[in-house]
Amino acid sequence: MTDKLTKTAITPSTHTAPPAKFSHGVRKGNLLQVAGQVGFLPAAEGQAPAPAGPTLREQTLQTFANVQAILEEGGATWEDVMMLRVYLTDVDHFAEMNAIYNEYFADLKEAPSARTTVYVGLPAGLLIEIDALAVLG
Predict the structure, then answer these.
(1) pLDDT 10s digits, 44-69
(2) Opening angle at CA 62, ends 42 and 119, nearest 5
């Protein structure tokens, strides 16, 4: 008989419950999948999630913080991330997002991961979403 690896849902205390039946992150064995995160500020009891601000910079930095919270809760760091997917609502934001990305990860020895960037529709006011796949160990 083979042992099945346990799948563990991850929701840091900084995050509100997802709006549908999914988890902010899921870890199974040495894999950690971070669901798409947006630039919502940390959860405040009794209040609806709110974006960090109207600018791409504010939302991107908060989105990175939200992804990092899930990575840490799941036992991972940016060094464990193998793949990042960035979803932008406006093609004109690509260069600015790259500049913020390079600044944010400037202290890492190597690039944090492979990356894909696509253009999508997001709820009103949201400019960016990021998901990540980390492999631990």
Answers:
(1) 878 888 999 999 999 999 999 999 99
(2) 125
According to DSSP, the residues that pair with 27 across neighbouring strands are 8, 32
Q: What are phi and psi of 61, to 5 degrees?
A: -65, -40
Residue 52 phi, psi (nearest 5): -65, -25
How far is the CA of 45 from the CAs of 13, 17, 49, 71, in angstroms? Answer: 11, 11, 10, 23
Whole-model pTM? 0.92
* Predicted confidence band of residue 43 (pLDDT cuts 50, 70, 90): confident
At residue 3, the pLDDT reads 65
Say if residues 127 and 56 touch (Cβ distance below 8 Å).
yes
CA 14 to each of CA 35, 66, 86, 121: distance values in angstroms, whole numbers, following the listed order: 15, 8, 21, 25
Report the 10 Å Cβ neighbour count for 129: 21
Give the Cα separation of 46 and 49 in Å (integer).
Answer: 10
